Structure formats: structure tokens, C-alpha cells
Amino acid sequence: PENRRSVTAKDVELSYENFARGFGSFVFTGLVEGFDRYVANATDDISGFTAVDDMTFRVSLTRSDPSFIYRITSPYLSVMPAEALANPGEIGESIHIGTGPFKFSHRTSTEVYLERNTDYWKETSGNVEELLFRVEKNQQLRLTQFRNGQFSLMQIPVTQIPEFFLDDELRTDYSGQFHSFTTTTYNIHYLGINNDAIPDVNLRRAIALAIDKDRIVENLIYSYGKTAASPVLPGMRNYTPPEGLNYSPDDAREELRESGYGGDTITLFVSDAPNSEQLGQVIQSDLSKAGINVQIQQMDFNSLISRLLGNDRPEMFLMFSEWVFSAPELILDSYHSEKFPNPNLYAYSNSEVDGMIDMLPELKEREEINRLNYEIEELALSEVPAVWLYHQNNVYLMKNEVSGFSVNQHNHWNLADVRFD
Questions:
Q1: This prediction's pTM
Q2: 364 CB-contact burial (10 Å; exposed 0-12 / middle 13-18 / buried 19+)
Q3: Burial grade of 21 (CB within 10 A; 0-12, 13-18, 19 or more)
Q4: pLDDT at position 360 over 50
Q5: What is the pLDDT of residue 75?
Q6: How far apart are CA 365 and CA 50, in angstroms?
Q7: What spatial distance separates the first Cα and last Cα of the chain, rounded to whole Å?
């Protein structure tokens, strides 16, 4: 077709430059030549990004970085054609792009239709010829439509687990028509603490020790997840995080006695994200038992993000992250004081931790890198920059005739291998 062309290195260069000023610019900050100057509007291009020819894209670094491969596999780094970047308002409307297993067919105000791409570069085992994505914002209506067979596949909200499952088994009302798929992505749900507003380490330790994570996982997400000691999912690149501070009301009260806390009310910001308000209430209750007064304030999720990245930052906040990295050292980079306010949303600062993080690029072997990762976290976790609560499982239901569905740990759905039998 006349409107088809090959992806070139120039598309990559333009896409990475376009990405540079976005929310995820921390992926390359301080690492790619000219990147920081470009972000600061001090230059018109990034000298470290070069399209050598149509098939060669060169990246020039300011220092060695053995984990660089795990940066460029970030889902943030999507490659867009120059034509689409020049007409951003038309993407998805009159300009449709991509090299995936399905291609755009047509759309309505609430539905998008895709058809199988017969020229897809990768061999797949699926037999789906058409995909229909339907937007239904009302959760109850969405569930009703799914039960009535109007959807073939759906991720169910964790709040609806009891509706569909009993003792980890799909209820008999549904098992005759549906089956489930469960996986854990690179996610973390946590209580963020503004370390500038709450600099008292003993108080932060008291907060961490007072929260019963096991009870939260059991009662709030119905055991569909695991308690967390770290922002890193255990097993990522064979890394096992330290244990951190475990639930102990007695130790929490002791830390509180050693702190300078005088009984002031601490404000905890929650959002309209699922379970956020309920989780805030559980934490408020746990902290109250330890003698820490907490007031909950709710706002929409986007407003909370704006507050975290702005000057009027909350004392404590509930947040979740779906990591764009798959190497622990890149996640632990959020402990570095120079990475405030993004991804260091908690304003944590420790020069010793900074120094160890700066040493990581000098190491090449995974065993050495993970050993230093452990030392970094052991120190950081003892000072409680945040309270890492749990890694949540994602649960998907699909019709029994559907097979081959999977989800990777970046929460990307594999629909190319889905079959209807």
C-alpha cells in the first residue's frame, strides 16, 4: 500500500527525543550525552542519539552502564513514525501506526476494531481474526456484560474476587463458562512518606512496624498477592531483597518513644484508585493503635500525582507503581537523592546510599550487582523512605473456549497467540 514504509533509525531517534521531555525522562537522565541539556532546553538535539543510517541507531553514554539493556527494553520507549509525531492530534483518528500482530480496522466512540496483520514479522499460534476493544467505565455494568458473555476476556478488579472465587477456586456459577489466569507483574503498592516533612527516622520506623501487611493482603486483596519488603519483586534478575522491618506493635511503640513525635496529626492522601481509600483506613487504624494520629484526605489520582511532583507535597500518600524496568538496580535508583522528585517520590536522601548506587555501573557480573543491591536496600530500608506493602496478583477471566492467553511482567497482554477452540 502507498501509506506503508519500513521503520528506520531516524524514527527511533525522533521517538527518543520526543520521549525525553516526558514523565519517564529519568530513564536516561545523566546517562546519555546531551540528554540533560536537551531536557533543560539548552540545545535542540540530543548528541548521544544518532541515526547512523537507516538500520543503525547509535547511543553514546556518559559512563558505563551494564544495565543499559534493561533501560531500552522499557515499555516507555515506543517507536513512533515521524509522520505521527508531526500530527499528534490525529493518532488513532486518521493516522494508525504499528508493526504488531493486529492492525486497525475501524472505530466508534466507544469501540476499536482490529484485524489480524497477515504481514506480522513474528510467527504466532493464535487464530483470532478480529479484536474488539470496548470501553465500559461502569464497573458493575462491565461485570454484568461479562457474565452475560458480551466479553471474551477481562481483567477483574481485586474488589470483585469474592464474587468470582471461593477458596482460590472459580465458583461453580462461573466455572462451567469461564476459566482464569493469574500472574504477578512488576508492581508495588506502598505507603509513601515525604522524608522532608517527616525527617524523624524513628517515627518512620514506628510507622513501618505498626502496619500489619499480612492482614492487608488477606483481607483487602483476598490473598491475591504477597507482602512486600522492597519495591523489587523477589526473583527479578535472581535478586532477593532484605526482609526490612516486620510488623511488631511493641517495637513500633518503642520507636515512637525514641522519636520526637508529639502527637501531631499526620495527613495521609488517598486517591480514587481501587482500594486506596479502604487501604488508607486500615493504615489509619493500625497507626492509631501505635499512638500515631492520622487524618485521611482523598483526591483524584491525577491530582495526587501533580501534588507529588509539585511544591505542595503531602506528608504521606498511598501509591502504586508498575515498573518499566526489569532489573533491580534501576528500581533502587529511586533511592538516589538526585532522582527527587521522580522517581524518588519520597525525597529520601542518604549520601552513603547515593555513593553505593553510583558504584553499581562499575560492576559487570550479576552476582556482584545483586550483592551491592542488597547492601543498598539493607541501609535504605532501615531508614524507611516508604513502607512497601504488597505486590498484587492480576486476575483475568476468559471464556472456556479461549486458550493461549498470557501476560508478561510489564502487564502487556499477549493476544497474538490466543485461540478460540
A1: 0.91
A2: exposed
A3: exposed
A4: yes
A5: 78
A6: 29
A7: 33
